[in-house]
Amino acid sequence: MMKVSLLKKIHVIVATGEWKQDQLRYRRHRLAEFLKKQPDTQEVIWLCPTPSRHEQSSSTLENGIVQWTVQDPLPQKVFRFGRFKDPFYKGKLRPLIAHLRLLKKQAVCFLWYTFPGFPLLGDLFPWDKVIYDCSDLWASPISGRKSFIYRLRQKLIAQAEGRIIERADTIFCTSDYLKKQVIDKTGPEKAQQVHTLENGVEFNLFTDRSLAEGILPEGFSGTVLGYIGGIKPKLDFELIRRIAEKRRDWLFLFVGPDGTGGQGGFRQLLSEENVVWTGSVPPRDVPKYMNLTDIGMMPYKPSPYNEAVFPLKLFEFLAAGKPAIGVHLPSTRKYAEKGVYTCLDTSDPETFIRACEQMESIKEQEAYIDKRISLARMKNWTEIFREMTDLIK
């Protein structure tokens, strides 16, 4: 019989949505591509819910990853609860389980949960390892709303996540806050299986110093404050609007898809004359837009959800040599350093403005640029995922 170490590996990644759902690359995308490149990997399967109907449940993406979709009961957003309740997805997983049983004869199979969907899957198949990579406080609403529907959704997600945590052999968290939350659920006897591994950066991608063209107003030479990523209700649009009113000599650049669901805060912000929004851009072009900025901004609202967040863009700004300012992001406080990163715990516009003015005065000094880049270089995704796989072994 072959030794397990010589067997090829099958990795099934439970993801939040289809690979190109909103043109953004999250931690789970990078993890899937890292696993795909490993010499002992036979297949990576991207398992995801979708509100859309597909003629075939599986297809091979351009990068060789196999995408399996599980259709929601109905396309409306309210029916996404089916992702967390066994009867609504169990039957739809049968073709995948049959496929895995054939592969299992000559491979080892790893299940990676990157969000708490399809919790029964951990018990439907004899997995060699079950891993939970926890990147968000999933049961807490991103918008901070507390309606009956949101409370019901919160309960469903919390129950599903609890089952996954109980089933997992190894758990990774993107912040110490999330790690504490998980350990509170597992109890101290499972604490050694829970690890904090923060988000990282594709460092080499940000060595590109070229600029996106036609974005800034013609002749503008002032300071550009940039936000790059998914534009969601967790952001404090009112804070930036008030700052934009006070500092007309600054330009506020937003790059990314609008995920606010039509809420008024972002639309109202866009009415300010010194606010520019590009919409979604190809992931490979992100450095070109980041190079337009003088200071990276991550303006989050105060909320339980944001207490747990470790933003993807922090080390990307630093890798591009740009200083950054975060608001209500306690998980990032350990990286605060003069000329590198400022972490604020207030939504006061004047405090934000003073922090930006301090960064303005030293943003081009080589010593600080070197510090930013050196910190980012230590946070490369490849090293993070290597540590993950070593811990699993």
CATH class of the largest domain: Alpha Beta
Rough outline: globular
Distance between the termini: 20 Å
What would you report as the Rg, rounded to the nearest angstrom? Answer: 22 Å
The number of strands is 14
Helix-residue proportion: 25-40%
Q: How are the strands ordered across the major sheet?
A: 3-4-2-1-5-6-7-8
CATH architecture of the largest domain: 3-Layer(aba) Sandwich
Based on secondary structure, the structural category is alpha/beta
Helix run count:
12
Low-pLDDT sequence parts: none
Verbal overview:
The protein is of the alpha/beta class and 393 residues long. The protein folds into 2 domains: 4-197, 3-Layer(aba) Sandwich (Rossmann fold), CATH 3.40.50.2000; 203-377, 3-Layer(aba) Sandwich (Rossmann fold), CATH 3.40.50.2000. The chain has 12 helices and 14 strands. The chain has helices at residues 27-37, 94-103, 148-167, 176-186, 237-246, 264-270, 286-290, 304-307, 314-319, 349-362, 366-377, 381-392; strands spanning 8-14, 41-50, 58-60, 66-71, 107-113, 129-134, 170-173, 194-196, 224-228, 251-255, 275-277, 295-299, 324-327, 341-344. The strands form 2 sheets. The protein has an 8-stranded mixed β-sheet with strand order 3-4-2-1-5-6-7-8, with helices on both faces.
